[in-house]
Amino acid sequence: MPIAANLLEIQATIPENVTLVAVSKTKPVSDLMQAYQAGQRIFGENKIQEMTDKWEEMPKDIQWHMIGHVQTNKVKYMAEYVSLVHGVDSLKLLQEINRQAAKHKRIIACLLQVYIAEEESKFGLDENELNEILQFVQNDKNGLQNIKVIGLMGMATFTDNQAQIKKEFQHLKSIFDKHKQLTTLSMGMSGDYQLAIECGSTMVRIGSSIFGGR
Ligand SMILES: *Cc1c(COP(=O)(O)O)cnc(C)c1O
Questions:
Q1: How high is the pLDDT of residue 117?
Q2: 46 lines ligand 1 (CB under 6 A)
Q3: Which of 45, 61, 75, 122 has its CA 20 to 30 A from that of 82?
Q4: Structural domains of the chain sorted by starting position, each given as residue range(s) with its CATH number in brackets
Q5: Is 52 in the pocket of ligand 1 (CB under 6 A)?
Q6: CA distances (Å), 1 to each of 5, 166, 184, in order?
Q7: What pLDDT digit, counting tens, does each position of 95-143 carry?
Q8: Which residues make beta-bridge pairs with 111?
Q9: Which residues contact 144 (CB under 8 A, 6 or more apart)?
Q10: What is the pTM of this model?
Q11: pLDDT tens digits, residue range 29-63?
Q12: Distance 106 CA to ligand 1 centre (A)
């Protein structure tokens, strides 16, 4: 199916209070423009260089979300324009985002990535590390005036076991609910976004169901 039709079909299944991030990594600008012309304005990328190339080429009313793992030394390349960084998993990274955002007189919104999957390989914080970072951020003396932590992001285990995925999403939602200042819960991809929404997701990151396989 064409990209615009995929997009409209998915949008029809997502409640109004859930934000759709169109994950366009590895796809050419011509594909992204099809989604843009169908009304999509939020795109997610997982490599800073690729996102920056697309930002330069594409209309300026697009919000660019960084959904991948971020290396501290590359933050400077996206600080001018990135609208939300999903995968923040260390204080060091948060401080670098703050430093680079200040250079551009911006406040960059961030999500803290929480580790919920069983797999070893996934990035993210455990609940103690999360609490420490949230406390640090809230203390004005620590000078993080150029970032705003607005929520959490998580990825479930890559499995067909729906009960397992549901358990992990519910776990993340329960952590999210403990922090009333947080408004955004980014969970759910092409294979599991409906379950994620049932479990309280407010932001889904969907790639292959819109743009096709990679
Ligand atoms: C690629 C990616 C997605 C989208 O995955 P699909 O299965 O193609 O929808 C979502 N989140 C992250 C972090 C990704 O890297």
A1: 87
A2: yes
A3: 122
A4: 3-211 (3.20.20.10)
A5: no
A6: 7, 29, 31
A7: 999 999 999 999 999 999 999 988 766 689 999 999 999 999 999 999 9
A8: 151
A9: 94, 95, 98, 136, 137
A10: 0.96
A11: 999 999 999 999 999 999 999 999 999 999 999 99
A12: 27
Q: Which residue has 């999403």 as its token pair?
A: 169
* Tokens encoding 84: 């939300």
20 lines ligand 1 (CB under 6 A): no
Token reading at 148: 């705003």
SS3 letters across the chain:
CCHHHHHHHHHHHCCCCCEEEEECCCCCHHHHHHHHHCCCCEEEECCHHHHHHHHHHCCCCCEEEECCCCCHHHHHHCCCCCCEEEEECCHHHHHHHHHHHHHCCCCEEEEEEECCCCCCCCCCECHHHHHHHHHHHHCHHHCCCCEEEEEEECCCCCCCCHHHHHHHHHHHHHHHHCCCCCCEEECCCCCCHHHHHHCCCCEEEECHHHHCCC
Encoded tokens for 56: 């330069």
Partners of 203 in the β-ladder: 19, 186
Most informative mutation of 14, 86, 114, 205 for ligand 1 (most atoms within 8 A of CB): 205
Do residues 124 and 89 lie in contact, with contact meaning Cβ atoms separated by under 8 Å?
Answer: yes
